[in-house]
From TrEMBL:
InterPro entries: Transpep_catalytic_dom. It comes from the Bacteria. This is Uncharacterized protein. Keywords: Signal. Gene3D superfamilies: L,D-transpeptidase catalytic domain-like. Residues 1-28 form the signal peptide.
């Protein structure tokens, strides 16, 4: 129980630190009414006419000043992972994935039916990309090749082989989405050093993700209509901070300190991990 509590608190504390870059527009110690974006503890709000907004609102992001359609729950808390609200619903939406090789983030967007734009941010994920400046490539018409999805992606050009969970190939691109690397098809044989380097240039071409996020893309590929296209875009922009700011490994689980514990702390296929991680994310989204 002590270990479960420690992991939960670490997840909450780390993402709180990540979101702490949003300035307070009013001190909690005063009676001043906030205006615009406002953070209180680990929760983020938007104030309009002296009140917290709720539901759907199209607003300029604090981070990159672009307009997005954000969702605020009934308590006014900004939801930064819409999959925590209704996983089965959101994976079936029209989605595009934008990978930024400069910030090492991948953000999933859903299409707004009213505008036809992919301006609903679903989730931002820390990732690793190619060691070469332009090694991770996406060409015109780039999309998930849904039929390529595999539970274990085995890269056989290396000796010994490299093993990754939840691999999905990108059509008209030169890479896969998948987890960090393992020494075999055993999810308790994670190469901890490579997990700890997530958020850097460390791959040949592919996009490495935490296990929970590799599983998300795998589910989008395998549990939705095969004919529905999921577009993929690669950008290289330092100033493109995204709708929720830049996510880092430190802002999620942090590095694995005990290198003998060779499991991805977000891995939903390991008993106990999924419940702990989902609960932590629910707290951060103001659902608990």
């Amino acid at each position: 129980m002590k270990k479960v509590t420690s992991l939960l608190m670490a997840l909450i504390l780390s993402v709180t630190i990540l979101m702490g870059s949003i300035p307070m527009n009013a001190s909690a110690a005063t009676t001043e009414v906030p205006v615009g974006w406002y953070q209180q503890g680990k929760k983020v709000y938007y104030y309009e006419n002296g009140k917290k907004v709720t539901g759907w609102h199209t607003l300029k992001s604090y981070y990159d000043k672009k307009k997005y359609k954000f969702y605020f729950n009934k308590n006014g808390v900004l939801v930064t992972d819409l999959f925590t609200l209704n996983y089965k619903k959101w994976i079936k939406k029209d989605i595009t994935i934008v990978v930024n090789t400069k910030t090492h983030n991948a953000t999933l967007y859903a299409k707004d039916k009213q505008t036809g734009k992919y301006n609903i941010p679903l989730k931002t994920m820390v990732c690793s990309t190619s060691r070469k400046a332009k090694g991770t490539k996406a060409y015109s018409g780039c999309r998930l090749e849904k039929t390529s999805a595999v539970r274990w992606f085995i890269y056989k050009k290396s000796r010994p082989y490299h093993y990754y969970q939840w691999g999905v190939k990108v059509k008209h691109g030169n890479f896969y989405f998948h987890s960090a690397r393992y020494t075999t098809t055993n999810n308790r044989k994670l190469e901890v050093g490579l997990y700890n380097d997530l958020g850097t240039n460390q791959t040949t071409t592919s996009v490495r993700l935490q296990a929970v996020n590799a599983k998300l893309i795998y589910d989008i590929a395998t549990k939705t209509n095969k004919k529905k296209r999921v577009w993929v875009k690669v950008i290289r922009k330092n100033k493109e901070k995204g709708p929720f700011g830049v996510y880092t490994l430190a802002g999620t689980t942090g590095k694995i300190k005990n290198k003998k514990k060779r499991i991805d702390p977000t891995d939903p296929s390991i008993k106990g991990n999924k419940k702990i991680y989902s609960y932590a994310m629910s707290i951060l989204n103001g659902l608990k």
